[in-house]
Amino acid sequence: MNLSWIDIVIIALYLSSVLLLGLYISKRASTDLDSYFLAGKRIPWWALGVSNASGMFDIAGTMWLVSMCFVYGLKGAWLPWIWPIFNQIFLMVYLSVWLRRSNVLTGAEWLKTRFGSGKGAEMCHLIVVIFAVVSAIGFIAYSFKGIGKFAEIFFPWDISPDVYALIIFAVTTIYVVKGGMYSVVFTEVLQFVIMTIAAVAVGVIAIYAVSPEQIAAATPEGWGNLFFSWHLDLNWTGVIDSVNDKIQNDGMELFGLMVMMMLFKGILSSMAGPVPNYDMQRILATKTPKEAAKMSGLVSLVMFFPRYMMVTGLSVLALVYMGPDIQAQGEHFDFEQILPYAINNFVPVGLTGLLIAGLLAAFMSTFAASVNAAPVYIVNDIFKRYFKPNADNATLIKMSYLVSCLLVIIGVCLGLMLESINEIMQWIFAALFGGYAAANLLKWHWWRFNAYGYFWGMLAGLIGSLVLPLVLPDVQPLMAFPLLLLAGLVGSVVGTLMTPAESDEVLCQFYRQVRPWGFWTPIRNKVIQQDPSFIDDSNFGRDSINVVVGTIWQLTLVIMPIYLVVQQWWPMLGAFAVMAVTTWFLKKNWLDKLEES
To answer: For the segment 192-237, what is each residue's pLDDT rounded down to a tens digit?
Structure first.
């Protein structure tokens, strides 16, 4: 594609503006580690929420969502549960409050509040640092694969996607490494505004360019239906035959089973709390526990409508106007390229530049968030703790720069070995995060769980996720989740029961500070005995109801823009009515009852 000079100017202005803004803001990030990684806990909660939403509005994930919407239609709205997107509801309702009450810098440091000090706690720190680094490298590889595929379509030079990705990575790394959290958050707010304008514009173009009758003619029966049975029952034969092969390769024929597995895995993973990445970092960067909860709620509120307007708009434009050409290409068509192909063919001059700038913004947000989140674990929890406990702030910041660059290099090397976005996406969200679930679920909800149990549970899950592609290469990672969960549970329970419980002092202090619900009765009784005035404000019943209602609320935010773009007006109004009722309920039963601390 040869971009017009207007589009090139827009893209160049955007990239240079972001780079200069990041470098300018970086002066505020160099005070100390708290300023660099958490911005001194001075950023408003709404800015952190928009930043978090922008970090999740990533280019690789958006390319994947467009391919899912193209293939599965309205049923594709369920597929992001593989991440799962409703983990934001668990965070909103109660987990962000629990986490922020710890008042620490990293997830590894948080373990002190739960397991104290000693050999077991040292082992916990080590395994969390390893997981955070592996996770960050996976996300960098994921971003690398997406940006290369995207850039290849738009830029005129005859070079490979990997070379394009290397160039864009080099530019982005400069402002991310230099600027820390200040740079990431404020540039992401700008990026989100650009992305929202472009995304809504694409949805409007699709509404005017495509009629419901054209969509029905270009898709098989059932494509426009949100609900499903045990079998997918989407037959693309005679429409786009190669889609049937993709469905089979995705392992989605038993769609009901896949959604049940996503729900099972998603609930347990969500209850385990956020993995040590950008999501956790933004929670820890808020001013108070109440603001942490509101920040997590804002993510769902602002992210889904614009994103799914663009996803659905590009999908239906490609279906109606590119369907015959895709059919002619047969099995050689790459469905992950639908997003850039659709922009190439259907978005007008000027808006193309804005949209490409927005999608580059989306890539930069995800990449920036991943690169900024992981180095703190190595610098704060390894380098400072074991090698240079008296290091000055300048040394620690320089070490952060070095670690960030090394992680980018390793992530790029992994990205060069991958074939598709789906390959790394499935492994990260189904296998790696699946192995994380057991130990982190128990750490919140079982008083007897100790540091040794956490270490062995995390180690078992991490090893399981790493060897899964080698031992069971043909097994869909999501379907292997029960095995990973079992491995983590066995490691956690055996490691716990074969070693002593944590001291009453550590457990009582943790319970008094965090106030979780779960199997904490013996510790709760001891805390009340020590302090009869202690008020236990945990509420399992209310939180459970709010999670269910919140998940329904979030689903309406996903399906409303889809219904809008495909012009199913009555279902859209029905979704809006459900959204209004659930919003009112959450206002009364969640927001109004949030405590400041």
So the answer is: 888 888 889 899 999 999 999 999 999 999 999 999 888 998 999 9
Distance between CA atoms of residues 298 and 189, nearest Å:
13
For CA atoms 130, 134, 139, 140, the dihedral sign is: positive
What single-letter amino acid sits at 597?
S
CA pseudo-torsion sign 541, 545, 548, 553: negative
Which segments of 11-135 are extended strands (E)?
none
The per-residue pLDDT for range 67-91, each reduced to its tens digit, is 999 999 999 999 999 888 999 999 9
Q: Is the pLDDT at 252 greater than 90, yes or no?
A: no
Distance CA 550, CA 572 (A): 18
For the full predicted model, state whether its pTM sits above 0.70: yes
Other CB atoms within a 10 A radius of the CB of residue 330 amount to: 11
What is the Cα–Cα distance from 420 to 161, expressed in whole angstroms?
A: 12
- Which domains, from first to last, does the chain contain? 5-502+535-593 (1.20.1730.10)
Nearest of 184, 137, 166 to residue 404 by alpha carbon:
137
Buried b (16+ CB within 10 A) or exposed e, 465-481: beebeeeeeeebbbbbb
Q: 107-115 and 451-471 helices cross at what angle (nearest 10)?
A: 140
Separation CA 433–CA 431 (nearest Å): 6
